[in-house]
Specification:
D-Maltodextrin-Binding Protein, domain 2; 426 residues; four-stranded mixed sheet; alpha/beta; binds beta-D-glucopyranose
Length: 426
C-alpha cells in the first residue's frame, strides 16, 4: 500500500501543522548560520551532487546539517518531513517539488525569497515554466536546482552489440529486442519493482501510445474520459507487457541497483529519468561511448520534466534566515548549477549557461527541452510530483503498481479504478 494513504493528507493536518509552527518559532534548535537541508539524494551520483552544495555553503561559513532520507522518488523523505513539521520543528530547507510546494505554502509554513529573487533577477533568469512552480501566492518560496528529464532510455552499447540489436526508437523495436537479448544471456530491461518506478515507466508508455495531448488530459488535467478511455486501456496493456522484458528478482529493487545492472552488463537497458546518468558518471563512464541515452521509445516529441527545488521553511532566527538566503542565491549561481548538474545528470535550471562541458545527453536534453517547449510536448511528470497533488499522485501510484503486479487484473479494471481513485482523492 502506498505510504501516503496511511498518513493524514497535508490539508487534513493543517491545524496540527499550524500549531506546530507556532512552537517551531520559539523552539528552533538551529544556531545562527546553521542550515538543515532535507533531501533524498543518497545514491552514489546523487550524493556526489548534494556534496557540491554542502561544500559551497560551508565555504560561505555556514554549517550544513545534512538531513538525507533514503528512498528513490522521495516518498519516505516526504513522510519524514510531514512528521517533523507536525512536531513543530521543520528543517530550514527541504527538497519539495511541483504542486506540493503550493500545499506547504497554503499552510503558511514557507519563508519568502523575494529579496534574493529580485537581487538575482529570477524573473528574467528562469524560464516561466520553472519560475511559476517556485512561487506561492505571487511570492518566491523555493529555488529550482535543476531540470531532470524523466522519459529517457539508457543502454549498455556492448550488450546491444553482442545481441545484434540497435538502440530501440519505438516500442515495437523495444519488444523485438527482447528475444535476441535473452538468447545472448542478458536481461533486456533492468527495473526496480517499487511504486514510483512502475509509475515512471507507466507515464512513458502513456506518452508513447496515446501521445502528449492525451497524457495531459489524463495525467495532468485528470479528465475522467481520458483516464478511463480506450487509449488508456491500451497504454495499460502495453505497460504490463513490459514485464516480459524484466527479470524475476525486480521486486523492491532500488533504481540505482537497476542502473548498475546496465553498467555491469547484466542488463541491456533501463527506462529511468536522467538521475540514472549520475550513476554512469560516478562510475567514470562516458556518454555516447560507454553508455547510450535516447528518449524513451516512441516519446521523441515529449519531454517530461521534473524540477528539483529547495523550499525554505519560515524561521525566526536571523542567522538561519541569512543562511537560507545564501543557500537560495548559491543554488542559482553558475558554479553550483554546473557542478551539481554535471554530477546529477540533469540540466541547469537557468538556460543561459555555457553547456560545452556537459555531456552529449545533457546537451540533447537542453535542445529537446527548448524544442518541446516550442512545439507543445513539454509535460510535467506525474510520477515525479510535477503534475498533480500528492494525494492524487498516491492514488494513481496504487492503481498502477497493483495492476502491474497482479496478473489477473485486466486493463479495463485498472482504468476504471484510476478514474474512481483520482476523483476520490481530488
Ligand atoms: C528526484 C531526483 C532523484 C530521483 C531518485 C526524483 O523524484 O527528482 O532528484 O534523483 O527521484 O531518487
Amino acid at each position: 500500500m502506498h505510504v501516503s494513504k496511511r498518513l493524514p493528507s497535508l490539508r487534513k493536518t493543517a491545524l496540527a501543522l499550524a500549531t506546530g509552527l507556532a512552537a517551531s518559532l520559539t523552539l528552533s534548535s538551529a544556531q545562527a548560520g546553521d542550515v538543515e537541508v532535507l533531501h533524498w539524494w543518497t545514491s552514489g551520483g546523487e550524493a556526489r551532487a548534494a556534496n557540491v552544495l554542502k561544500e559551497l555553503m560551508e565555504a560561505e561559513g555556514h554549517n550544513w546539517e545534512d538531513f538525507a532520507v533514503a528512498g528513490g522518488g522521495g516518498e519516505t523523505a516526504m513522510t519524514v518531513l510531514k512528521s517533523r513539521a507536525m512536531s513543530g520543528n521543520p528543517p530550514s530547507a527541504a527538497q519539495i517539488k511541483g504542486p506540493e510546494i503550493q500545499e506547504w505554502g497554503e499552510l503558511g509554513l514557507l519563508g519568502n525569497l523575494d529579496g534574493v529573487a529580485e537581487a538575482q533577477q529570477w524573473e528574467t533568469l528562469l524560464p516561466e515554466t520553472v519560475a511559476e512552480v517556485m512561487r506561492h501566492d505571487g511570492h518566491y518560496v523555493a529555488v529550482p536546482v535543476n531540470v531532470h528529464r524523466v522519459n529517457w532510455l539508457w543502454a549498455n552499447p556492448e550488450v546491444l552489440d553482442d545481441a545484434g540489436v540497435e538502440m530501440p526508437t519505438t516500442l515495437d523495436e523495444l519488444f523485438a529486442a527482447a528475444e535476441p537479448l535473452r538468447e545472448a544471456g542478458y536481461i533486456p530491461l533492468a527495473h526496480g519493482g517499487q511504486a514510483w518506478q512502475d509509475a515512471t515507466i507507466f507515464e512513458d508508455i502513456v506518452l508513447a501510445t496515446a501521445g502528449t495531448d492525451y497524457y495531459r488530459r489524463a495525467l495532468v488535467d485528470l479528465d475522467p474520459e481520458a483516464l478511463g478511455g480506450e487509449p488508456m486501456i491500451e497504454a495499460l496493456s502495453t505497460f504490463k507487457r513490459l514485464r516480459t522484458l524484466m527479470d524475476d528478482d525486480m521486486s523492491g529493487r532500488d533504481w540505482n541497483i537497476a542502473t548498475s545492472m546496465v553498467i555491469e552488463g547484466d542488463a541491456a537497458m533501463q527506462l529511468m529519468g536522467d538521475w540514472a546518468k549520475g550513476e554512469f558518471t560516478a562510475a567514470g563512464l562516458t556518454a555516447g561511448e560507454d553508455y547510450l541515452c535516447a528518449p524513451a521509445p516512441g516519446t521523441q516529441d515529449a519531454f517530461t520534466f521534473n524540477i528539483d527545488s529547495l523550499a525554505m521553511f519560515r524561521v525566526s532566527d536571523e542567522g538561519e534566515r541569512e543562511a537560507q538566503e545564501d543557500l537560495a542565491r548559491l543554488v542559482l549561481e553558475p558554479t553550483f548549477q554546473k557542478a551539481f548538474n554535471m554530477a546529477k545528470g540533469s540540466i541547469p535550471a537557468r538556460p543561459d549557461l555555457d553547456m560545452s562541458e556537459f555531456d552529449s545527453c545533457a546537451q540533447q536534453s537542453l535542445a529537446d527541452f527548448q524544442r518541446t517547449a516550442d512545439e507543445g510536448g513539454l509535460m510535467p511528470s506525474m510520477a515525479h510530483g510535477m503534475a498533480v497533488r500528492a494525494a492524487v499522485q498516491g492514488a494513481i501510484f496504487d492503481v498502477v503498481t497493483n495492476y502491474f503486479n497482479d496478473t489477473d487484473m485486466e486493463a479495463e479494471e485498472a482504468a476504471r479504478r484510476m478514474v474512481n481513485t483520482a476523483q476520490a482523492a481530488y
